[in-house]
Design a protein that fits this description.
heterotrimer; A mainly alpha; B alpha+beta; C mainly alpha; A: 13 helices; 4 strands; C: mainly alpha; globular
Chain lengths: 304, 357, 262
Amino acid sequence: MTTPRLIAERRQLGRRLLLSAPAMLTLLVFMLLPLGIMFVVSILQSGDYGGVKWGEYSFEAYRNFFYERDLDDTLVFNTDYLEIFQRSFWLSILTTAGCLLIGFPTALYLALQTERKRNLLLFLVTVPFWTNLLVRAYAWMLLLRNGGLVDEGLQGLGITDTGLGLLYTNNAVIIGLLYTYLPFMVLPIYTSLEKMDWRLVEAAFDLGANRFHALKRIIVPLAMPGIVAGSILVFIPSLGNYIIPELLGGGKTLMIGNLIQLQFGSSHNWPLGAALSFALLSFVLLAMLVYSVRFKPGNAGGHP
Amino acid sequence: MGTSSSEGTCSAISIEQLSMEFGDPGQGVKALDTVSLEIQSNEFFTLLGPSGCGKTTLLRLIAGFEQPSAGTIRLYGEPMQDLPPFRRPVNTVFQSYALFPHMTVAQNIAFGLEMRGLSKSEIGETVTRMLELVKLPDVGGRRADQLSGGQQQRIALARALANRPKVLLLDESLSALDQKLRKDMQIELKRLQSDTGITFIFVTHDQEEALTMSDRIAVMSKGRVLQVGTPTEIYEAPVNRTVADFIGETNFLAAEAVADGVLLSDGQRLSVAGDRRGAVTVAIRPERVSLAADGQLLGKVENVVYVGTDTVYHLNVAGEGGFRVRQQNRDGALSGYRVGDSVRVHVPSAAIKVLVE
Amino acid sequence: MNTHNPLWRFAGMRPAAWFFFIFLYLPIVVLVVLSFNGGQSATLWGGFSLKWYSVVANDAEVVRAAKNSLIVATLATLISTSLATLAALGMRGRAFRGQTLMSGVLGLPLLVPEIVTAVSTLMFFSFINLKLSLFTILIAHVVFCIPFAYLPIRARLEGMNPYLLEAAADLYASPWKAFWKVTFPLLSPGIISGAMLAFIISMDDFVITYFVAGAGATTLPVYIFSSIRMGISPKINAISSIILVISIAFVALSYYVGQRKR
């Protein structure tokens, strides 16, 4: 049965789909399809001189995560890649913890400012996001290198007397990741604090809570969606970061991102690179799925 | 079909069997359920009902913003269904006013005229006249969001009236105004309607507003029209309990209709003419009855509420509480009745409405 | 919120905020200051001079890379903003089946790690035998610019009173006229800020460009990366400062436009 109403609705839906079509098609062809191809490559045999052997399927690439094929074709347990995974997770966890430690009080500070000052500070928080990360990582090289400004400053203050040799270490990578992702922690926490009803905190004070208790029992629980969102926004991209370990880790402190890049560079192992990328992507999507199920949008301020 | 267009010389809008269903046919939510209405030319017609009753949906169907699932709408005999809103000779005053925020007041008023391709001089003249009509001759150059709520409302009215529509649709147009402004605008709208001679269809959930302004009212509930009539008809002779309950204050008593009246649950008898039999509901307006020693209805005072002009007595009648009697305070003092007193209520037989429901 | 009320002074809040802002801006300030260094070293101060800027301006390779960056960013901005505007208009209105999925796809480039996008795009181009060039860079940039252009436009549309369009139709404006007279003027701040974001993101991108750039199709960030690999130098300081200042100017401008149009 067709009513005038259904015909009108259908016509309008058609028009809306037509408007969305160019962008959707672009993303389907140049984003989703490549991801599909990447998955296929991950289950192909690696070519002898780079590239892949089309039509020859194998799970060799995924096996490569843990095992290495010896000269006589036996599988030998290999911890090289595991170490890189472990380091990636560990550095990302430390980065997330550091971001939380600095980011939460900063967000609280922002939320408590007058509107004028708050807008300016928020703008300052977002500016680095729009500037070139490569360039900012380079700036850290200037600061951290032997005899760089951090060394000079500390020696000038009499805290140290020799160079620290910070650059090209895990510490340099953590500093770089922290620097890159701090705003990603501050903004979501600020957003949930800004929406918060501060009279609740006043009620807590009224009921005899001191500042610490008000923070622990009222503010932190209410800011929890922001804290979780911020942690995901920091943890996930630092796991796959390429630039920071490349520049500040100096190729010694490899993370997953660098390992993937290597497969398309000197190692010429596309299936392994594709498999690593696919694993990383699956992890990201899984994390987002868990997040969206547990923290449905629109229930900000709710409990986890 | 076709009868209304040939005979109905002054029927501005005739609506036949109009239904509207959201979702799939047969299983969606019915916003309108086979509604038929005739609205006369030059009439101030009000659609009255609680929120969700379908009154705004009906208005939007007339304007053309929504398409019906079934039924027809005719404007002076012309079927409207194939015309998009921008080809219908009707204009709307939106609830939120919907003034264009990036244009001045004058540009807002001129918009419809420009779209119809009127000449610049004609447009300028009309804009000036409209601003005078709504008594805001000096705000033409200002931006819409610099005006107060009451002023925005007048501009929205001017913008719609500038096009001299055959029918003007007003969607809860006064609900955002405060009490005082609202009373003024009620009078002003009525004046504008008689000055311009345009048919007004006014949507509201405020029964007092509807009674004050309308020539005729359609009371709606759950997608249906329950009753159409003048304010007096609607108030004095509601067709069922829902209408009686929605318009003004009403006491309802469960009763059984017998040969010469009705029997209440405790055996009290009220005499009233009528040939109904069986279970009925008796509706009695609180201001139509009075406390009197010779009254025929017995009750017990539960509460006495002084409201300035009146005193309202809440009585327990026939075992049910909350029967209200509204007495005017003509002598400026409380009468002697106290909570717990047994009293008698005088009920003129004209004040008794027997409803089958 | 009264900030002077001691009730709201939580311990450690102010020092953390200070640390945060110093940490965030110290490297940028140091870099820009060192770019005016007259000496031969990248970090040892040798007096104020604009010498490295003139070296950069006269370096044919840098100029070519900058030109490439500008061409790609301009085209990517135009294309992605047009696609995003159309999509935002299509996504407006009553939700339909599959709309959530479609918004998900529009936001996908923000979700997928950059390195994954980079290598999958590279494999895709290799699969369809498309030679890497400025053109492949452009395609990749259009893709990841779409969500950046889309989000502000969509937000602007969502904040728009839906009755305005009905009012326009009620006042005899056809859908086409209603779009140009009502929707577009009200939407334009969103389109401008979306386009600006797309431009900055395209100008700044390194990881994806690095993978899909063919020989000779070097953009500025790719050039900077290969220079850094050969060691830090005062010349890189100067190029980097130029890029930083351009980005910051752009963001400040878009912030200013947004504030004014409020």
